[in-house]
Design a protein that fits this description.
The protein is globular. The protein has 2 domains: about 190 residues, Isopropylmalate Dehydrogenase, CATH 3.40.718.10; about 130 residues, 3-Layer(aba) Sandwich (Isopropylmalate Dehydrogenase), CATH 3.40.718.10. Helix 1 packs across helix 2 and helix 7 packs across helix 8. The protein is an alpha/beta fold. It is about 40% helix and about 15% strand. Strands 3-4-2-1-5-12-11-6-7-10-8-9 form a 12-stranded mixed beta sheet, with helices on both faces.
Length: about 325
């Protein structure tokens, strides 16, 4: 039986990432879990939370084996300075980057079947001088991928984004025909590749209220979104749009689609987080590797309190295992 080896990056050391990683280790998993972290930080987290856990050194030469509750393989990456829960330190920013680089490279070379990422503190990385706008963009640059696409998934919705971490004033100029065309092709390809939807039913939102109201509330739908949708429909993609965002998330409309493609971050993500916050998964499309993540931030005030919700990291790991196993089954067939 195939046992995928999954690497989990523990994220901001002063946040809830270490807490949720050691909590995950209390459950059996049909995968070989490897946590990228400072081993002493995890041991201190276990002690603070009053958990029982045996920390094992990760040896890539050993065969993969299913995870058993109460143990955890750790790929030790040392922090630069002592960690204080709830207080990010710019001196540990390089530690966070080292974790991401090691995990990403391990996925690229086939050592790991997928990577799952706990949240990072972007402001700390930026203050330390790293050009870091988010996991999505960073991993795309690391893997030399032309354009990543952020997809949020839960048991009721899939929402992909054309633009991600941009100021709202910058969004209209960023929505070009080339960017939209590439985004929709990636969404179409990866929903078929990862979720066996052939072809996926893709609904493309408008940018403006009422999808522009025939040009009276903006021309992006007439000049960019509509023409690209029609062009790709002619290529065989199953698209509809531009769809007004205020009606696209109604239950009746959602029955007609497999994924909503939103134009910007806060057009689509508040809806999916409303219906499933803490249990949604952030997945990056357009990469040569499989990467899933949580749908929340570092929750600094909850670090080492035992109150951190592990639901999203569990969902991200579950999806990574399912997709990695399905990929192996497909390759074997």
């Amino acid at each position: 039986m195939y046992i995928p080896r999954i690497v989990i990056t523990s994220g901001e050391p002063a946040g809830v990432g270490p807490d949720t990683c050691v909590a995950l280790a209390q459950t059996d998993w049909q995968a070989d879990l490897v946590v990228a972290a400072d081993a002493q930080l995890l041991a201190a987290t276990v002690a603070a939370l009053g958990l029982a856990l045996t920390v094992e050194h990760y040896d890539p030469r050993r065969p993969a084996r299913a995870h058993r509750a109460g143990t955890l393989r750790v790929m030790h990456i040392p922090t630069s300075h002592p960690v204080v829960a709830g207080r990010p330190d710019v001196r540990n920013a390089s530690y966070v980057i080292d974790m991401l680089d090691r995990a990403c490279d391990g996925c690229t070379n086939g050592e790991f079947a997928a990577m799952v990422t706990a949240p990072v503190q972007k402001s700390t990385l930026l203050d330390a001088g790293f050009a870091f706008s988010g996991h999505t963009e960073y991993l795309a640059a690391r893997t030399r991928s032309a354009m990543p696409v952020m997809l949020l998934v839960n048991d009721r919705l899939r929402v992909a984004l054309v633009t991600t971490h941009l100021a709202l004033a910058d969004v209209p100029l960023a929505i070009t025909k080339d960017r939209l065309r590439t985004t929709l092709r990636i969404v179409n390809m990866d929903l078929e590749r990862h979720f066996s939807l052939a072809p996926p039913r893709i609904s493309v939102l408008g940018l403006n209220p009422h999808a522009g109201e025939g040009g009276h509330l903006g021309r992006e739908e007439l000049d960019i979104i509509g023409p690209v949708v029609r062009e790709l429909q002619d290529e065989g993609l199953n698209l509809q749009g531009p769809v007004p965002a205020d009606t696209a998330f109604t239950p009746r409309f959602l029955e007609t689609t497999d994924v909503i493609v939103a134009m910007y971050h806060d057009q689509g993500l508040p809806v999916i987080k409303h219906v499933g916050f803490g249990h949604a998964v952030n997945m990056t499309l357009g990469l040569p590797i499989l990467r899933t993540s949580v749908d929340h931030g570092t929750a600094l005030g909850l670090a080492r309190t035992g109150k951190a919700d592990t639901g999203s990291l569990r969902a991200a790991l579950t999806l990574a295992i399912e997709l990695a196993s399905a990929r192996s089954d497909h390759a074997g067939s």
